[in-house]
Amino acid sequence: xxxxxxxxxxxxxxxxxxxxxxxxxxxxxxxxxxxxxxxxxxxxxxxxxxxxxxxxxxxxxxxxxxxxxxxxxxxxxxxxxxxxxxxxxxxxxxxxxxxxxxxxxx
Amino acid sequence: xxxxxxxxxxxxxxxxxxxxxxxxxxxxxxxxxxxxxxxxxxxxxxxxxxxxxxxxxxxxxxxxxxxxxxxxxxxxxxxxxxxxxxxxxxxxxxxxxxxxxxxxxxxxxxxxxxxxxxxxx
Lengths: 106, 121
Hints:
The complex is a heterodimer.
Chain A: E1 4-7, E2 10-13, E3 19-25, E4 33-38, E5 45-49, E6 53-54, E7 62-67, E8 70-75, E9 85-90, E10 96-97, E11 101-105
Parallel strand pairs in A: 2-11
Antiparallel strand pairs in A: 1-3, 3-8, 4-5, 4-9, 5-6, 7-8, 9-10, 9-11
Chain B: E1 3-7, E2 11-12, E3 18-25, E4 34-41, E5 48-54, E6 59-61, E7 69-74, E8 79-84, E9 93-101, E10 107-111, E11 115-119
């Protein structure tokens, strides 16, 4: 199995902050890495696929980078609606999610 | 417009078999490069991928749950069914189905609202 390690598990930030979340795979997954946002009681929402491709309708303040084993999700200027839990997911060999990063209000 | 909706029993007894149905619209599961997957989330915990079925009827299962899972599709009814045997209280979770697309790197771009399944005697 490919394991996905996200860090940090939680962070506190303010509106307007630049936020960075990292995800590390236990082996190389090329660029087969996707990012999701989930709010309480709701289904996850796809933000980024193939490491850096922005899903249609997702604001440009979200960006993804990385390849191989190390990946990053960046929110350039945090907005009130961005307080949520973020998950990475590898789709290189079946699928595995990270344990999530909760972005909370500072 | 793609939509998916999960249905199934809200309560299952330990050792019973869970059967969940995903009914979808807006796409065909006979189209090349399309798949439907299942993901679950125990209360307050992370997402866990369970299974996926491809347009060509190929199937993939979570290695840790493989022996308990079966995924099938009925293309004519636009449905995907997941069965999980030998249910245990630790299987209490919200179960989601999701649309996957090869052209989106097999990410899950559309999700159902989820259905909460509680395992309890």
